[in-house]
Design goal:
This protein has helices at residues 5-18, 30-43, 53-56, 66-82, 103-112, 139-156, 175-188, 215-229, 245-254, 263-279, 291-295, 297-318, 324-333; strands at residues 22-26, 47-51, 91-95, 114-118, 121-125, 129-131, 162-165, 193-197, 234-237, 256-261. By secondary structure, the protein is α/β, with parallel strands linked by helices. The chain has a single domain (5-333), classed as TIM Barrel (Alpha-Beta Barrel). Strands 1-2-3-6-7-8-9-10 form an eight-stranded parallel β-barrel, surrounded by nine helices. Strand 8, helix 8 (215-229) and strand 9 (234-237) form a beta-alpha-beta unit. Helix 5 (103-112) packs parallel to helix 6 (139-156). The radius of gyration is 20 Å and the shape is globular. The protein binds zinc ion. The site of zinc ion has 4 residues, from loops. The site of zinc ion (ZN) has 4 residues, from loops.
Length: 334
């Protein structure tokens, strides 16, 4: 079930209250989306599927047109998540690392949504939660951008559930910077920021452990954001691929509710694909009886899924998300 922006807030509160985190996978193909939903179904965990600019513009979605890619991504995910097979899986669709001149256009489209016919009838499907890449923005620009998104959402009559970030690759975000970013947004648009992504000592990419990562800073950030907003706001952890399992699990228990996962996921999928092409080389001869089954996209995709899905399940359970999907949906139905 694809969650709307308000249900997503409730999902984060559930995770925060029960001290678990939701795996947020950057999925860059239709097969990857299917694999991630399969993993969530198996783990009975909520899941966040996120798309960055490079995915929206990628071959599987917009082929150069990010707004078209967003519509295609959202429509596909809404239909898939609405299927009986995944109806007990809470699914959040998040726009991740959107930057550059197209940012406002893409995020406006995400807030306004697309019309999709689902089991409950035809309706407007919106991105569950949104964020933008603030790595090239000053703090004032970051604040102005988030406020602008809140205004666009209000004008469209759409609730905005926003993840706000500091420059997450720049070491630890000091408390004064958290204040400088969160407080003015809260003053002008109270209640739109529901995730806070400070620098916690991790970095994007495949690092080899981060000795600078500190769980006490997760606790301190969660406490400061609560003070600034008057509500429980979960943390988003970027750059989890290079972090050791014990630290990731500890972060989830300490106030991180969203764990972004991209680099390791890409490594797992591409390594499996490489093995497929190496192991099945003989079957690439058109005279081989298995040729067609091998060379179809489904050949490599099915091979990748067998290796990839169990690893995603493992990651979801590491974050404490196992079994929490039906538990959360039960609270929505009360
Ligand atoms: Zn990130």
């Amino acid at each position: 079930m694809l969650l709307d922006p308000l249900q997503s807030r409730a999902q984060f509160a559930h995770a925060l209250g029960r001290r678990y985190a939701i795996l947020a996978v950057n999925a860059d193909s239709h097969a990857a989306v299917t694999d991630v939903l399969e993993a969530a179904r198996e783990a009975r965990a909520p899941v966040i599927i996120e798309a960055s600019l490079w995915q929206l513009e990628g071959r599987a979605y917009g082929a150069g047109d990010a707004v078209l890619g967003l519509a295609r991504y959202l429509a596909e995910l809404a239909v898939l998540a609405d299927d009986a097979r995944y109806r007990d899986v809470p699914v959040i669709f998040h726009t991740d690392h959107i930057k550059g001149p197209k940012t406002v256009g893409i995020l406006t489209a995400a807030l306004k949504g697309v019309e999709v016919r689902l089991s409950v009838g035809k309706g407007l499907v919106r991105a569950s939660t949104i964020s933008l890449d603030a790595s090239s923005l000053t703090d004032d620009e970051n604040v102005a951008f988030v406020c602008r998104l809140a205004e666009i959402a209000a004008a469209a009559g759409a609730p905005a559930t926003i993840e706000m970030e500091a420059n997450v690759d720049e070491g630890h975000t000091p408390p004064e910077r958290t204040r400088r970013l969160i407080a003015p947004v809260e003053a002008r648009h109270p209640g739109v920021v529901w995730l806070w992504a400070p620098g916690l000592g991790t970095q994007h990419g495949l690092g080899d452990g981060y000795p600078g990562f500190r769980v006490d800073l997760v606790v301190a950030n969660a406490s400061l954001v609560r003070e600034l907003t008057g509500r429980a706001v979960g943390l988003a952890l970027h750059g989890s691929s290079g972090l050791d399992a014990a630290s990731v699990a500890a972060a989830a228990r300490a106030g991180v509710v969203k764990v972004n996962w991209s680099s390791e996921s890409l490594l797992l999928r591409s390594s499996a694909a490489r093995d497929f092409y190496a192991e099945r080389a003989a079957q690439f001869d058109p005279k081989d009886p298995q040729w067609k089954a091998t060379v179809m996209d489904n050949g490599v995709q099915s091979f990748v899924a067998v290796r990839y899905v169990p690893r995603v399940v493992e990651r979801m359970k590491l974050l404490g998300g196992g079994g929490q999907g039906p538990a959360f949906l039960g609270t929505l139905r009360q």
